[in-house]
Each structure stands twice: as structure tokens, then as C-alpha cells.
Specification:
Low-confidence stretches: 1-85
Number of strands: 19
Number of helices: 8
CATH topology of the largest domain: Jelly Rolls
Order of helices and strands: HHHHEEEEEEEEEEEEEEEHEHEHEHE
Largest sheet: 8 strands, antiparallel
Distance between the termini: 92 Å
Strand content: 25-35%
Length: about 425
């Protein structure tokens, strides 16, 4: 009863002292539901309490405002009927800066031999270049742009015809992985490279595919590898700190140089196996292995052959064409995974300080001609800026230009050919 009387005294006092803070009951309740105090209201209450006295004031304790982060907003189409199919995935962390890849030495192969970003596959369809004994479909997401190939079920998914690879090649793709059941932290998927007698037979060899050897790798809550040949398993390993978070986008990169395999998760090299393949081993098959724990979504799947010969191409032949400098669609910001290629080029340029170079950007023929021309010029300028800022190349030695879609090296009729047309050239002056 005493507490009720004290409360009445406070309310009566506040109504006649003309406090500047006005309390809206509806707004106060709403703020309390968010665990946030209204500071102005609390200051007014505190002033009133101090005037009444310490005894009464003790009945009210001001709540400390909760520390909260603003929720990221994702724009959605206004018309639900036009909204593309989306996958509910968690947002990725902010894109890493180019400098954060300072130990990233991955350089993609010099010639693109396969590329699929699934833009030519309708949403809900299975991509034509792939085959499966499980299931899958192309989807879009509400957080990550582009088309994504969502792999579904248990089984495997592989290139339909396989692919005969040379001694030196690279494979790259963006991936999002997630558990089939919420709360399952032990989710993973497999990615296998091997030599098959019949690339059409995805069941060849059972759990150990290929009759001539290969390597099985898994990614998700950890990274593992198991290499094998005709005699059995030859080398195995696990890297627990190579973990992926569910719903976050990563880039996986694989670099094969004869017997050596290096694997990168974003900017970190997670495996470096110098003698994992026998001399003369030739891979002609790769596949994703799906288990009950979780499934991946992939895009920008790229295979490129050969080692970059930067010095010879630029200094002797006078022209270097590179496919290892990356940009998002319709963007001119150099992506962090370009670091290895830029570092390689900068090393050559800094060793011959008298040479001047023109950087020329090229696009594919999708979209407006004028916009492509402008985009190619802006991309060339961005490459110059990174070479100067991140690698110390003298800006006076670098000129830039862009040709848009006007100088294609292939027809604009397939994902592979479009990837060949999207390039950056360095021309010795």
C-alpha cells in the first residue's frame, strides 16, 4: 500500500511541475518490448524522482539501454507475383579488402576451358552441362546476386561428359552450404577429382570413384582429404579450422600442378599436398558428393588450364591477357580473389621500372553497348588504382582504356565464350 501511495505522490507531483519530458504510454510499452529505454523519458522521471526524495526515488530504477545492432534490410520486390524463388540464407560478412589477401598466392590458369554461372538455365531447371543421381535446380537468393545451382538430396552431381584436364589447371567456384536440418552443425559436402574409365558412370568405383586414383575432399564444418591410387589410400588429413558457417558465401579454389594440389578457402590456403598425385596422373572427372548432413549451392564455376607466363607474355610478346582479375556483374570494384594475379603482374612491372603499360578492359556483349564501354574503362582504371595502392607500381607508368564489347575473342553464345570475352589486357608501350 505504501508503494501505491508513493507512486500517487510522484504522478501528482509531475503533473504540476510542468516537466519538459512527456511520456507516451504506447511508445513506452513498445520501447520496453525491444529492451530499449527512452532516454528523454527516463531523464524526466529522474528529475521528478530527485525532487521527491531519495526514499521514493528508490522505487524506480532506470533500465540501461540494451546494446543492439541495426538489422540489415534486404529489399524485396513490391509485387510478390514477380518475386523470384529465393533461398533463405544468412548474410555474409562484409566483403574483405584486397589487402586482406596479402598471403593469397593463387593464380588461375591462363585459358578458360569451362565456365558456368547458370545464367542460361531457367530458375527451377537443372543445368544442361551437369548430370546427377540425386537432384538439383537453379535458384536465386535474397542476399547474393546471380543464379545459384542448388544441389539436393543424397548422391552425386558431376559434369555430364567429364572433362579431360592437362597437367596444370585450376578450378574455382563460389559456394554457400547449409544443413538439411536446422541446428545440425556437422554439415558437409564432398568434392572429388579422379580418373574415370567411363565419365558417364557416376557409380564407377562406388565410394572410391575412378579406377586409376584421385582425391576425395569434404568441406563444411571441417576440411578433409583422402587421396588414393590402385593400391588403396595413400594420404589422408583433416583441418578442423577450415570450417564454413551455414549460409555464408565462400570461394573455393583448387590449383593442380602435375603432382601437387593446393586448396584455398577464401584467402586461406588450407591444403598444400606436393605429392598427392602420381607422375603422369590425368584427371578427367570431378563431382560433388551429397550426404544427408547438408547440401551446397554453387555459382561461377570456372576451370582454366595452363600456368600464367606473365613475364614472357608481357616483356617478350608485349601483351598479357588475364582472366584472373575479377569483378561482380556490372561493377568496377576489383574483387579480393584477384590478389594473386595482380601481385604476379606487379612483380614483373616493379622489376622493369622503365616499361610503360596500357591496361585495357573488355566485356562480353550482354547489355547496352555504351554501358559496356563505360564499364570496361572504369574496370581498367580500378585495376590501375589497385596496382598503385596495393603493390607500389608507379602510376605514371600505367595508362588505361576500355573497349567494351567491341573486340571479342569468341562468340557471345555460351557461358564459356562470354567468360573468354570478359578479360583485362596489359599492353607494353
Amino acid at each position: 500500500m505504501q508503494a501505491i501511495k508513493s507512486l500517487f505522490v510522484i504522478i501528482f507531483f509531475m503533473s504540476f511541475t510542468g516537466l519538459s519530458a512527456q511520456v507516451s504510454v504506447g511508445e513506452k510499452v513498445k520501447d520496453q518490448s525491444d529492451s530499449r529505454a527512452n532516454n528523454k523519458v527516463d531523464q524526466g522521471i529522474d528529475q521528478g524522482l530527485e525532487s521527491v526524495g531519495n526514499g521514493v526515488k528508490g522505487l524506480f530504477k532506470k533500465k540501461k539501454p540494451a546494446e543492439t545492432q541495426p538489422e540489415e534490410k534486404v529489399e524485396q520486390p513490391a509485387n510478390n507475383e514477380q518475386k523470384p524463388e529465393t533461398q533463405d540464407v544468412k548474410p555474409a560478412a562484409a566483403s574483405p579488402l584486397l589487402q586482406s589477401y596479402s598471403k593469397y598466392d593463387f593464380i588461375p590458369g591462363a585459358k578458360v576451358i569451362f565456365y558456368d554461372d547458370f545464367t542460361e538455365t531457367g530458375v527451377g531447371d537443372f543445368p544442361a552441362s551437369w548430370n546427377t543421381n540425386a537432384s538439383g535446380e537453379v535458384v536465386t537468393t535474397n542476399l547474393y546476386p546471380g543464379n545459384w545451382f542448388k544441389m539436393i538430396g543424397s548422391g552425386c552431381i558431376a559434369l555430364d561428359e567429364g572433362i579431360k584436364l592437362p597437367d596444370n589447371y585450376t578450378i574455382e567456384y563460389d559456394v554457400i552450404t547449409y544443413p538439411k536440418e536446422e541446428g545440425n552443425t556437422a554439415f558437409e559436402f564432398g568434392f572429388y577429382l579422379y580418373s574415370a574409365e567411363n565419365p558417364k558412370d557416376m557409380n564407377e568405383g562406388g565410394a572410391v570413384p575412378g579406377l586409376k586414383g584421385g582425391i576425395k575432399m569434404s568441406f563444411g564444418y571441417r576440411g578433409t582429404y583422402s587421396a588414393y591410387d590402385e593400391t588403396g589410400y595413400t594420404i589422408e588429413g583433416t583441418k578442423d579450422d577450415a570450417a564454413m558457417e551455414a549460409g555464408k558465401k565462400y570461394r573455393l579454389s583448387f590449383w593442380v600442378q602435375k603432382t601437387r594440389l593446393r586448396v584455398y578457402l577464401d584467402q586461406a590456403k588450407i591444403f598444400d599436398l606436393p605429392k598427392v598425385f602420381k607422375a603422369g596422373f590425368q584427371c578427367n572427372m570431378m563431382r560433388f558428393e551429397l550426404w544427408d548432413s547438408g547440401n551446397p549451392m554453387i555459382t561461377n564455376f570456372r576451370i582454366a588450364a595452363g600456368l600464367p607466363d606473365t613475364r614472357n607474355k608481357l616483356m617478350t610478346e608485349g601483351k598479357l591477357v588475364t582472366y584472373g582479375i575479377y569483378f561482380d556483374v556490372n561493377k568496377d570494384v576489383v574483387k579480393p580473389e584477384s590478389y594473386g594475379t595482380l601481385k604476379d603482374i606487379a612483380t614483373v612491372l616493379n622489376e622493369v621500372p622503365d616499361v610503360k603499360v596500357k591496361i585495357v578492359g573488355h566485356t562480353d556483349a550482354d547489355g547496352d553497348d555504351a554501358k559496356n564501354m563505360d564499364l570496361s574503362k572504369r574496370r581498367a582504371a580500378s585495376v590501375k588504382a589497385e596496382l598503385v595502392k596495393s603493390f607500389g607500381v608507379n602510376a605514371d607508368r600505367l595508362q588505361t582504356d576500355g573497349m567494351g564489347e567491341s573486340q571479342p575473342v569468341a562468340k557471345n553464345d555460351s557461358p564459356v565464350n562470354k567468360a573468354l570475352n570478359r578479360r583485362v589486357e596489359f599492353i607494353k608501350l
